[in-house]
């Protein structure tokens, strides 16, 4: 019996795909390994959300983030997080707006190419949650920010075989305090930042 090309392709995908068990990260924070981690830039996003004239909560994102995470599950006060975000990577659903946001009246990516976050204190607030105090730098201005973090999962990535841990973290800034004042208050001053972070263990 001859198989069609489509059937052969589907069969190959089924054989090559990792098992469902292998794809499932552990949700148990007790399984997380201590160590130094590096951001996986391909699976890490920084999303921003703000009010657009009071009609919608408009969202965009940044990619190509880099940075590190030092984890001590038994001593979370010793944890450290640093993130660098190239603001020129900004992406929205409106191409003209995406280009505009890199200009001087907004992020001024040519003069201030990166936004950064550096933690100063980590406090565990629950089995899978923590607050992360730190310094956030944007548009050449540094101000304190508090992130609310949540553990997502940990385990071996079935594709590249790296031990990976995932967290989400959310905080709010006032963009005018960083000198990004265009169209305030019609376009919201309060901006919610959400990090969807994947970190690969280095040692």
UniProtKB/TrEMBL annotation:
Please name the Pfam families in this protein's record: YceI
Query: Sorted alphabetically, which InterPro entries does this protein's record hold?
Result: Lipid/polyisoprenoid-bd_YceI, TTHA0802/YceI-like_sf
- The lineage's top-level taxon is Bacteria
Which segments constitute the Lipid/polyisoprenoid-binding YceI-like domain? 36-200
**What does UniProt give as the signal peptide span?**
1-22
The alphabetical list of record keywords is: Signal
The family database entries (PANTHER family) matched by this protein are listed as: PROTEIN YCEI (PTHR34406:SF1)
Write the protein's name.
YceI family protein
């Amino acid at each position: 019996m001859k198989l069609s090309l489509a059937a052969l392709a589907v069969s190959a995908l089924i054989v090559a795909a990792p098992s469902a068990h292998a794809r499932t990260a552990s949700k148990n924070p007790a399984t997380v390994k201590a160590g130094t981690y590096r951001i996986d830039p391909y699976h890490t996003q920084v999303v921003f959300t703000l009010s657009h004239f009071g009609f919608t909560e408009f969202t965009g994102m940044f990619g190509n983030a880099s940075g590190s995470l030092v984890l001590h599950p038994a001593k979370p006060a010793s944890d450290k997080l640093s993130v660098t975000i190239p603001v020129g990577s900004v992406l929205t659903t409106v191409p003209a707006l995406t280009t505009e946001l890199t200009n001087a009246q907004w992020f001024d990516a040519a003069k201030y190419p990166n936004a950064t976050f550096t933690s100063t204190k980590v406090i565990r607030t629950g089995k899978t949650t923590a607050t992360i105090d730190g310094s956030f730098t944007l548009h050449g201005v540094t101000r304190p920010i508090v992130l609310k973090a949540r553990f997502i999962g940990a385990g071996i990535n079935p594709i590249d075989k790296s031990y990976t841990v995932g967290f989400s973290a959310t905080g709010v800034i006032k963009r005018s305090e960083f000198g990004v004042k265009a169209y305030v208050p019609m376009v919201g001053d309060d901006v919610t930042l959400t990090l969807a972070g994947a970190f690969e263990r280095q040692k």
